[in-house]
Amino acid sequence: MAEDDADADEEIDVLVESFDARLGEAEEALDAAETEADLDAVDETLDAAERDLETVDRPDKDEEDAEDPAAEVKDRLADLRDSVEAERGPYAEDVADNVTLAAETVRETRWTEAGEHEVETAVAEFSEGVSEVLGQKIPKDDDPADTLDTTGEEIRESGFDPDADAEAVSALVETVETLETGLDDAEEWDDLETREQLSAQGFYDVLGHYKDFPLEWSALKEYEQRGNVEMVLLALDSLGSDFMERHALETITRMNDDRAFDEMHARAGKRDKPGIKAVGKMAVPDAVETLVEYVDTDSDPALQKVTFRALGEIGDERATQPLANKLSMENDVVRSHAARALGMVGDTRAVRPLAATLADDEVESVRAAAAWALRQVGTQRALERAAEYTDDRSYLVAYEAGQARDALDDADARLEA
Questions:
Q1: In this structure, what DSSP letter does residue 283 have?
Q2: Cα distances (angstroms) measured from residue 386 to each of 312, 336, 350, 403
Q3: pTM of the full structure
Q4: Which of 152, 295, 347, 380 has the fewest CB atoms within 10 Å of its CB?
Q5: 2 — pLDDT class (breaks 50, 70, 90)
Q6: CATH 1.25.10.10 spans which residues of the chain?
Q7: What is the enclosing helix (H) or strand (E) of 336?
Q8: Terminal-residue alpha carbon distance, the chain
Q9: Pairwise CA distance, residues 404 & 378, whole Å
Q10: Is 188 helix (H, G, I), strand (E, B) or coil?
Q11: Distance in angstroms (rounded) separating the CA atoms of residues 25 and 28
Q12: Using one digit for the tens of pLDDT, what is the confidence trace for 351-402?
């Protein structure tokens, strides 16, 4: 019976290797693809591989906790499908859909008098740009939204091919992006109310004659230069757009000012990734207890990644054991981030689990991360563990080991001197 299981396992291993080879050929074809037809051919290859993969018979498939030996192949297949889709287009139909959305925005938004003029200007410039690409004049309606509807239909009916007319489609994409920017910058009544509130608090006082648009972004840049985190926090609380929220959070992260800690800590407490990144940059130990709670969120590797780095940047030894526990989890990307975070923390208690990972992990990137982490810990014992692998089969591991050996040699030279 054991011999039968071994034969079955060997057969599955051979099948998995064959699928790896087929997917490797698909990757090469994807890299070389220049047309939609080329991408269609890659899709057909992936379809065939998926159909064949479904026929693989696993002896233990009825066991609920049985590991699927083809899981990595399936993940790789899914990633390739995503890559194929990312390479497709752009399509004229997609541009037309974006124009339709822009028309809805124009209709549904309450513009100020100045905003209405800005919208008309943006739509007129867009229509002229599309007319130039299509080689025909787009009729102008009194209502800018109606003009956009007409323009969208003309684009949809253009029949542009994503391969043969790639240059024209790219030009259409550029024109609609310019339109969207113009509509974003046009003044709404809601914008005016917020701007009046910010103006009353002196938010715009830093703006000189030359300004970037939107004005709030220009002000954020100036406040960052002046180190005025209070005004950046005011913008974060007042401005409702995703664009400004992102830039305000990025500004706070770069400023790394403890005065913003309470706000960022509150966001981190809601699993907000930019907030977690910010408290990591601030390196305030008060955030450790909150962040450690997210170490075991295995269902959200992206949250784990930003949490691990934040804990590493804070460098508090309370994170050592929770991070070390993740060195044994299935996701090799998460294992790698856990190893690097341990190196950033620098706790000598991490030497043993990092050395074990370097010795036993089957993924070279994880082993290399463990070797790097041992170098960051930097004690003689840690460097000696890493330096054992100067002849390792993995270049990355051997490189880190060589760096550790050089560090040990430098230390010996200093002692002799």
A1: T
A2: 20, 16, 13, 9
A3: 0.50
A4: 380
A5: very low
A6: 315-417
A7: helix 332-345
A8: 66
A9: 8
A10: strand
A11: 5
A12: 999 999 999 999 999 999 999 999 999 999 999 999 999 999 999 999 999 9
